[in-house]
Amino acid sequence: MPVTVGPYGQSQPSCFDRVKMGFMMGFAVGMAAGALFGTFSCLRVGMRGRELMGGVGKTMMQSGGTFGTFMAIGMGIRC
Questions:
Q1: Contact in structure between 61 and 34 (CB atoms under 8 Å)
Q2: Helices 49-78 and 15-44: crossing angle, nearest 10°?
Q3: Dihedral (CA of 26, 31, 34, 35) sign
Q4: 3-state secondary structure string, the chain?
Q5: What is the pLDDT along the chain (79 residues), one digit of tens a residue?
Q6: Transmembrane residues, as ranges (predicted)?
Q7: Predicted TM-score of the model (pTM)
């Protein structure tokens, strides 16, 4: 199957590249949202210092992974 070429000679990204990019974008957005929500929820229950950093980091990784996975699935469906 020939590679599709854009109007200026560049080739289109593969489906795997699009899924990978969707995951990275979703992970970044999820980490930002996790930083906001994690900070407020950890402060609300009274965490301080090292415990606060661990709780916020855990929330950031969880929300980043979750949102990244759904963005990757959506990009996979698109291509």
A1: yes
A2: 150
A3: negative
A4: CCCCECCCCCECCCHHHHHHHHHHHHHHHHHHHHHHHHHHHHHHCCCCHHHHHHHHHHHHHHHHHHHHHHHHHHHHHHC
A5: 565 666 676 788 899 999 999 999 999 999 999 999 999 999 999 999 999 999 999 999 999 999 999 999 999 999 8
A6: 23-43
A7: 0.79
